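Input set for joint prediction.
Command: fold jointly, output tokens.
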Amino acid sequence: MGLWGKDTQWSTVPRLPALPMASKALPLQAADLEQRAIRANLGLGAARKEIKAAAAQLGFTNATALIPFLEPGVAADREEGWEVGPSLTFPIPIFNQGQARVAAAHSQVRQAQQTYWAQAVEIRAGVRAARQTALSARNRARYVRDVLLPAYTEVVNNTQLQYNAMQVGAFQLLGAKQLQINAGLRYIETLLEYWMARTALEQILNGSMTDLEITPVAEIPQGGFPAISISGM
Amino acid sequence: MFTRRKFLTATGGAVAGGATVLASAKTGHAQPTNIQRQEKPYHLSVADYAGLPPGQPGKDYNPVITPNNVSLPWKIVDGVKVYHLIAEPVEHEFAPGIKAHCWGYNGHVHGPTIEAVEGDMVRIYVTNKLPAGTSVHWHGLLLPNGMDGVAGLNQKVIQPGETFKYEFTLVQHGTHMYHSHHDEMTQMALGTVGPFVIHPRNPSRPRPDRDFVFMLHEWRIDVGTSRPNPNEMTDFNIFTFNAKSFPGTAPMVAKMGDRVRIRVVNLGAMSHHPIHLHGYQFPIVETDGGQIPESAWQYETTVLTAVGQSRAFEFIANQPGDWAMHCHMTHHVMNQMGDNFPNMIGVKPGDLDSQVQSLLPSYMTMGQEGMGEMAAMGMGGMMGVPKNSIPMVGGPGPFDYITMGGLFTVFKVRANLISYDDPGWYDYPEGTVASLASAEALQRDGINPGADDFQPPQGGHSGHMG
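tokens >
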């Protein structure tokens, strides 16, 4: 990890953070995820500089007009058919000697623009894919947490009653407990899948999400799973 | 042996005399009356009873007692006893703590006892309020084939909402039954059965002072559920006297010196029951084929009643006390006993309990010394059992918890009784109760128990009793 000295004395938190509440899962709800990615992406930043550099050869002092327009309303409207191929316009200086050099410079600008475009498309696609992965992972984790785990807990509780009534033996009771524990392990797995998908998304967005709150993790009381408070997770 | 001939001579009816002459004229030779109960075809037997008024309680018979149930009321219409049976779903309590959705008659499970006297003309209307078609068969009765009640064979099925009429004359006496005869496996298993008692018109033996009838039945009601499973063939877990399991069974009460008759009929699906009464010896005096002659009496303390059979036994209640009466199949005196767990007798759990409790906080190893402690602990209250169940529950007794359930009831005999209401527990005379042997008695008789260093089993429930 490239650490030395005191920095090697690090530790992880003992538990994965809980699934964030739907209202707090901003990155997954944000409509401008793609825009954020576009704005933040370092590669695109470099590509913008290339456009500017190529434009400078043509004598432009302000090449901003040459950067393909990103703001919504033009041709970059979210998930519904974002079209590639916008209306590209840029001025062409005509009173200049060295037409070949100028023509070459023009090509360079166009090339830089197309490269920029292709990269932007990939980033947008990547953002959408990463968002979808994170969403599915969250749904799976929620299903295990809200449907499977409570069902298996109910089975354990009722099997304990059946055991008390001497209708089943200790092995069946422990078997029911095992199913519940397996469901708990599955929850941890899906939770991990979610956080990894989130991390991948955030990487694409290239920076921490400062306006996101992560809900604190619920404590697990003594006595293990049957006493767990599902609502706190 | 008391024959119909003797009876007819006693009444001296001209019509009856004519019928007798007709019979012997037809046959030409004497019927072997001592082995053939049905001397004549039904319609001729009916003729013998023509003109007899309907039997009245008190005058012609002592009404039978159906513990935990009632007799079906009747009314007289033009000399005919008219009854109304309504087959319908009934929510029924087997014992405190367990109720189930059953099928019965007139709001009762089992159906009320139909009671009549030999010679009565009876008319029974059957209304079907069940969700399925039904019929009623009069088990053991001699009657016209079309009244026999086998749906499909003798009559059309009584569809839900319909009312059928059965009409016949009773030409016999004994302890009989009635039950559905359409989809019997389902309907009888859900409770559509009942006793049918026919008192003799001129009994040759004294009338009993106390006359009880019990219908035996068995059910499969999984712990926590509230509907009997009629498809069960071998694994029943609730056994009942008149659809009640101890501690839900009402006791029988008699005075010292009472002549007591106990009738037992069995309409369970699969199990025969050896019904054992403590404290007495008695002959079986009657079946659904009629009276058994005294010369054929066999004395028992246990009367085996197979499925479909009827047995009546009689004795004089001359031994005071609270006498147990129960089926002697040991699993039939347990409520909702499970058998789907490992044999725990003698198991020494060691530290298993504390290890498992880290996963299951209310776990407790059970059954190492049998079931007695389980019931006495009141498992329902202490440990929690599924709702609407009474697994292995018994009932409190005057000395200790009685660890019996199912086919178990008490026959209470008292010297002085003002009424036949439940007199409570027996007041034992001094010195007649088995109890701890005193040191003086042990020494006097030279008995050394050799139990000074006996260690009762450690841990287990003694730790949990609290």
